[in-house]
Input
Amino acid sequence: MQRAAIAIIDLGGQYCHMIGRRLRDIGVSSEILPPSVRAGEFEGFAGIILSGGPQSVYESDAPSIDRGILDLDLPLLGICYGHQLLAHLLGADVRASSAEYGHAVLQLRQERGEDALFAATPSSQAVWMSHADRVESLPGGFEILAETSSCAIAAFGNPQRRVYGVQFHPEVAHTLYGIRLLNNFARKICGVHAHEHVKDRVENLLSDIRKKAASRPVFFFVSGGVDSTVAFSLAARALPRNQLLGVYVDTGLMRKGETQELRSLLDEAGLGNRLRIRDESSLFLGALQGIFEPEEKRTIIGKLFVDVQHRAMSELGIGGEWLLGQGTIYPDTVESGGAGKATALIKTHHNRCAEVRELIEQGKVIEPLSEFYKDEVRQVGAELGLPKSLTERWPFPGPGLAIRCLCVDGTRPKPIEDAGIDCGSDYRAVSVPVRSVGVQGDGRTYRGVAAVQGPLDYGRLASIGSELCNKSQTFNRVVAYLAGAANELTSGRVTPAPLSKERIALLREADHIVRVTMEERGLAASVWQFPVILVPVSFAGGESIVLRPVNSQDGMTASFARLPESILDSIAGEIADLPGIDAVFLDITGKPPATIEWE
Ligand code: XMP
Output
């Protein structure tokens, strides 16, 4: 137990660990505790935060807390599900109601945050939401502190009791004043003054690697992405040459020129001579034949990486005790449902497939960055002196283009139909019969896609995108038509399409156009990531491309990036001219409700 720390009770939220990270950023210690923690176990804590979670308080197996916690003389802050649980335990009503996913505008009841929780924040502020239930009535003695257009009790509090609840997520980067709110809670309300400095982060990481590896050889997968390269660089610094083997697997699912680019980037970082490259493209593409479901693709790819590791090690005569090194970061674990009992699976990251989890249980995996988020990994990379060309690259997922090439099973095309939803006079929405992965209310959804046609007015498109997903259970993602042969979206159809080398090659060309244009125009750093997705939506016998530029800090929340119209025109026009591409769309959904990748 720590002194003057904040206790965070984990109710299964996607962002629970991030609450601890934000507190760490502002010099406040915290500890994550399970919901089973008893009221008598909070000695030395200055306050308690209840995290979000995927369930509804009225479900029979919903996580709850020891009621005695409410009688402790300790400040309490409930976030999202934690807010609803507080209300429920205090006798107020919580019900399924109009959902809010992503951006919302919070209006404070008092002018310019006079309440301690909202001190020094403006009376109108952008917050990030992810909920379908809401608090419908106030517990006795509580007052409403803030509201949004569709949530009347978006924050409540009882300042005398020092108990507060907020429906939004102050811990995510997209909530503009979230850190200030957490700082107000920790310092003004809980009175925490302790200051924790991150000192010698790299030295600590190096010594952890040496301790964990001891004398065992480490087999490291390097993909060329930021995480694995930073993790590999740490291992290369920590371990002698003969104890570390770096392997890059060309899965056949990489971007154009990726293998050569990686080789030169690693040479630049002084790591090139510690890496072997294996071409396993036939293996990966072969195993994905006839696979349509995203989770199936992901688990097959994860398993193949482990198979490749075993094969490579036996070819090299590495036997006995060894470790698998990976650049796993915290979001990979939480999204794969591996963070705690109540955490939902959103998507299985390749480094969290069953085979890897088994190796972890056997103590055979080393992941120096597993507690970090992407922005922290970039900082560690900079501290290691790695070039910006490596640390600031767009993230690229381990399963590569396979999860950006949407596959549809069946024998017959499916029609695109009017969605029957009024989006205003200039816009028309249609329902596209394909599904993609979303994260809504801290749980996974696999829902349909809406497409809209109308002027490229980002403000209106953003609100149409939010409305369609908040009000309809059918969609978790919305795209806007940009260019191509679709005069009328309902003239299109979704055609059955398996994963194939040819489709991957087409996607690779479209992806290349995006990268080159963004780099040539000096705009690559203006977006956090820019996935390009191939979707079998046909208007003239071909397929469609969806552009997915996003802004984010850590990949846990995201908003679609509003690129200059001229760039978008140029990219969409060039891609629409590719043989086999009929139309180009722009993904206008935040995370939540959609995830960044489609699968
Ligand atoms: P989502 O799609 O979950 O993505 O919003 C968040 C970030 O994670 C990346 N991502 C992965 N990275 N292995 C990885 O190494 C994976 O299996 C994987 N799946 C998603 C994604 O590209 C984004 O940056």
